[in-house]
Structures are given as C-alpha cells and as structure tokens.
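call fold target=Rhamnogalacturonase A/B/Epimerase-like pectate lyase domain-containing protein
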Amino acid sequence: MALFLTMVLAFLIISIHQNVHGENSFPPKVHFSLQKHLDELRKMQGFKAPFLQRDPLISSSAPSISAPAPPATARPKIFNVTSYGADPTGKTDSTDAILRAITDALQGPSIGLLINGVVNLGGAQINLEGGNYLISRPLQLSAGRGNLMIRGGTLKASNTFPGDRYLIELSSTNKNGPLNYEFVTLRDLLLDSSFLGGGIQVVNSLRTSIDNCYITHFTTYGILVQDGHETYIRNSYLGQHITAGGDPQERNFSGTAIGLMGNDNAVTDVVIFSAAMGIIISGQANTISGVHCYNKANGFGGTGIYLKLPGLTQTRIVHSYFDYTGIVAEDPVQLNIANCFFLGDAFIVLKSVNGQVNGVNIVDNMFSGSHRGIDIVQLDQKNGPFTQIQQVVIDRNNVDGMNLKATVARGSVQGNGTSWTVDFNSILLFPDFVKHAQYTLSTSGSTFPNHALRNISNNNVLIESDIPVQATVFVTVDQGKTYTS
Ligand SMILES: *[C@@H]1O[C@H](CO)[C@@H](O)[C@H](O)[C@H]1NC(C)=O
Ligand SMILES: *[C@@H]1O[C@H](CO)[C@@H](O)[C@H](O)[C@H]1NC(C)=O
Ligand SMILES: *[C@@H]1O[C@H](CO)[C@@H](O)[C@H](O)[C@H]1NC(C)=O
Ligand SMILES: *[C@@H]1O[C@H](CO)[C@@H](O)[C@H](O)[C@H]1NC(C)=O
C-alpha cells in the first residue's frame, strides 16, 4: 500500500512539474489541482480499503478472509432433460424423463414467494438442449410455482397422445390461492401436436411469457389461455398445417390458433398461418398488435379474429395484417381497430346479439380488394337489428377495390330548383341513422334565397329553398358522435 501511494504521489509531482513548466503563468490552478488529486486519492483509498484488506499480499497484518467456497450442492438451476434420460433424437418416448426433470425443477429451493401461494424458484430452467422429444402425455406443471423457464427444443406428441390435452399444461389447481403460476416462461420451443390435441394451456396464471415458439398440428387450440392475467404471447408462429399460403387443403383447416378466455393478455408480433380461427377472444382488456392472420380465407369460412364478448369487449387490435381473413365482433362495446391492413377483400363484421354497439373506433386502416363490391365493414343483423348505437367512429380508412363504409360522410348535390337531396346510403354503415348533419348552400346568382334543412330520413338529407335557384348543397353527416346541446 505504502509503495502504491508513493508511486502515485511521485507521478503527481512529475505531472505538476511539467504543468508548471508549460503554464507557469497560472500556478494557483496547479495547487488547486494537486489538492483535488489528493482528495480524490484519499477517496479512492477509502473505497479500495475493504477490497485490499482481503489480499494478504498487500496487507499481511489484515486477517486473511478468502471468498467462501460454494457449497458442494449449489449449482445453477438448469435441468438438462437428457441428464434424466430423455431421448433427443425423438425415437423413444421421453415423457417420464422430462417429467422427472420438471419435478426436480419445481422442487428446487424456494427463494420466497412471488404472489401469494406461488413459490419463487429463482429462475430455474428446464433445458431441452436443442433436442426433439416424443411425448405421450401432457407435461403438466404442478401448481404454486413461479420464476422458471422451459426452453430450447422440440416436443412432439406421439400417436397415443390424448386428443383433449396440451403438450405443455399450466393447468393444475392450487388450494392456496386463486393464481397457480407466476412468471413461467416458455421460449424457443417447437411444439408439434401431431393432430392430437393442443400446444399450450395456461390456466389461472399470472405473467406467463410465451416467446419465439412455433406451434403446429394442433386440432383444438395452439395456445389456450383461461382466466388469470397477463399471458404475453410474442414473436411466435402458429399454424395447424405447415404452409405458406394458397394451400390446396385450406378449405379443410380446423382448430383455433389462440384462445384468450381471460383478461389483460397480449398477442404481439405473431403469425397465424393456418387454422379455421386465428384468435378467439372472450376476455376483456386484451391487446393484439403486429399479428398477421392468413389462417383460412373468409371465403372458405375462416375468421382471423373473433371477438365473443357481447356488451363488454374492451379490445384493441392495432398494427395487424388480415390477409384474406377478417374480424368478427359480437355486440362490440369498446373496441379499437386501427392501423391495420386488410388484404384480399378482408372485412370487419359487427354482429348483433342484443343489438348493442358502443364505443367502437375503426380508423386509419387500409383495405385492398378485387373490385367485387365488398364493403369494408358489414353488419350481421340475423339476430335482430342494432338498436343501441353510440360513439361509433368509422372514418379515415382508405380503400382500393372495395366499398368504403363509414359513420362520417360528406356529400354534395347540384341542382336548379327548390329542393336538394343528398343520399348517404352507399357510404353510411347504419341504415336510417343520422345523429348530426350540417349543410351549406352555395349559389352564385344574384338572389339570396331562404333555405333550410327540412328532413333527414333513411340516410337522406333534404334541403329546401323558398324560390328556385341554381345551387350546390354540401352536407356532412355523422352517425357516431355524441353531441351535447
Ligand atoms: C446442460 O447442458 C448444457 C449443454 O447441453 C451444458 O453446457 C451444461 O453444462 C449442462 N448443465 C448441466 C447442469 O448438466
Ligand atoms: C376436406 O374434407 C372433406 C371431408 O371432411 C373431404 O371429403 C375432402 O376431400 C377434403 N378436401 C381436401 C382438399 O382434402
Ligand atoms: C333554372 O331553372 C329556371 C326555370 O325554373 C330557368 O329559368 C333557369 O334558366 C335555370 N337556370 C339554369 C342556370 O339552368
Ligand atoms: C321525411 O321524409 C320521409 C320520407 O320521404 C317522410 O316519410 C317523412 O314524413 C318526412 N318527414 C317530415 C317531417 O316531413
């Protein structure tokens, strides 16, 4: 230590000496700098002291304290499934081996609790080591566990796998609390259900992460989320059949890629490349972003996203791509569809159940079709008409080769006479429903007629004047906005 200090001081003196030579007109600055250096040095020594004391070479008088050796049993909590006898070639059944690895991982030391009733496993990992494993029973995790990961390999259902189960199941129930798992991560997995059952089931779980997974050959759901909160599905690919579109079997695709039967989940940056239904949602406050659905064309009976939450939808669908398949929303109440691209005559259906539609924004989307006269937004009123229509804004969408539909429209009509009628039926979504209208009568003649809005009925707006006049009438109507008087 003494030697170190001496060397530092010597170095400083040399620097100061040079400094004085170079800038001898400012000696006060040099003294100030020296003081500062010494202060810094003292601080540094104070900071270093506890570390230096541990080294008997530097301070022989200090007690020798070496870092404690890790206990013989402590090792990283990575459970390699091959160490349990799993067969990474996929030739023999690895169910028991992987379940043993999972059981050990779930018994690992607890570092306390996460949410009430969920043991924190500290980040234990079940490592599939890039292998391909055949399994004949679901890998069901016992309840009350959290902070663990299953990663890095392929699981394939054998031909005896039960068709009503899932390859990975977070579905056990726990008597301790309502939430059975927290922060379980499933990542970098290829899950092949071999047309027997589904991929992943997540029940009553909190903060589950499904990341970079490829899920295929499911007959029920690729991923089914029931109850719980905040399952985040991202950067993943799901398809019943492995195809890149235009598949000759497309008509026969079945199953659902993702079912969200719970609240507060997110599906982001996900491709759904085959299934009868892309995503079905029956829970609130879910968000869909960056999803590309080309699962089964609408013309073959497919649906991209089906919102089965009549009366309390609370769903946001943004920045997504609907490729020959669209969106169906039952009695939507609070639904936002924005910045999406609809290709191949794909459209949105508002389906009446109890006749309610409230708080719906369908804005800033692009629609591209084949000039077959398909409306971009349609009403399904087979169960009865929409009777409660409030705060619906369908506007600012752009269209190529399809019929624009909106709840806000502008029109004009030219004529010589005393009446002008603007018919908005070709554009307004709801029949016989205008909540607000404004007009301007423009005439260049020498007369200034009296004129008035006389009638709004069947989405037609009638303007009349007291004397014949050559005029253009401009009208703006709105079906959605709520105005206060
Ligand atoms: C698990 O496997 C990886 C590579 O397959 C290896 O690097 C690691 O040491 C193994 N860990 C254990 C605990 O066996
Ligand atoms: C689709 O399934 C039906 C029976 O469900 C079958 O008759 C038909 O051949 C299948 N189509 C194709 C293209 O495989
Ligand atoms: C408008 O109609 C009247 C007759 O009703 C006619 O006298 C007048 O020339 C017409 N004006 C124009 C610009 O066509
Ligand atoms: C408005 O027009 C409709 C359709 O032409 C008509 O049935 C209705 O009686 C009119 N209302 C008024 C107040 O003139």
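return ok
The first strand starts at residue 78 and ends at 80. Residues 27-52 form the longest helix (26 residues).
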